[in-house]
Amino acid sequence: PQTPASSPAGFATFDLRVQPVDAEVTIDGQRWMSSEDGHFVLQVPAGMHRVEVTKAGYRGFSNEVEVREGETTPLNVSLMAPAR
Q1: Strand bridging mode 61-67 / 30-32
Q2: Which residues pair with 63 in a beta bridge?
Q3: CA angle, corner 78, sides to 74 and 82, nearest 5?
Q4: Is the CB of residue 68 less than 8 Å from the CB of residue 35?
Q5: From CA 81, how far away is CA 84, in angstroms rounded?
Q6: Which residue has the higher pLDDT, 8 or 27?
Q7: Contact 23, 39 (CB under 8 A)
Q8: What are the DSSP calls for 8-62, one per residue?
Q9: Taking the model in full, what pTM does it have?
Q10: What would the mean pLDDT of 3-13 be, rounded to a whole number?
Q11: Binning pLDDT at 50, 70 and 90, where does residue 6 land?
């Protein structure tokens, strides 16, 4: 039996949580906004995506993340303030 996928064919879901909640999130160079502070649920094409999280005064996060078709990929990013 085939289970129904929650995402459209060829797509996957990112479940992204960021700290601090007002950090800027870009995926493949496109900036994303969220209605819920620090929590993003995004439909993206399956495959590799560059995720970047930045905020002034913090060390940025940048990584390639693979998402699989029909699956939800959780990602938690906590930016750290640089040592002074």
Answers
A1: unpaired
A2: 51
A3: 155
A4: no
A5: 9
A6: 27
A7: no
A8: -TTEEEEEEEEESTT-EEEETTEEE--SBTTEEEEEEESEEEEEEEE-TTS--EE
A9: 0.83
A10: 71
A11: low
Read off φ and ψ for residue 14, nearest 5 degrees.
-95, 130
Annotate 62-76 with DSSP letters as a single string: EEEEEE-TT-EEEEE
Q: How many beta carbons lie within 10 A of that of residue 56, not counting itself?
A: 7
Q: What local confidence, expressed as pLDDT, does residue 35 receive? A: 79
- Tokens 């085939």 — which residue? 2
* Total residues found in the chain within this entry: 84
Tokens of 4: 């129904």
Q: How far apart are CA 65 and CA 2, in angstroms?
A: 27
Cβ distance 50 to 44 under 8 Å? no
Phi, psi torsion values for 20, nearest 5 degrees? -65, 155
DSSP state of 16: E
Query: Rounded CA gap, 33 and 12, in Å?
Result: 18
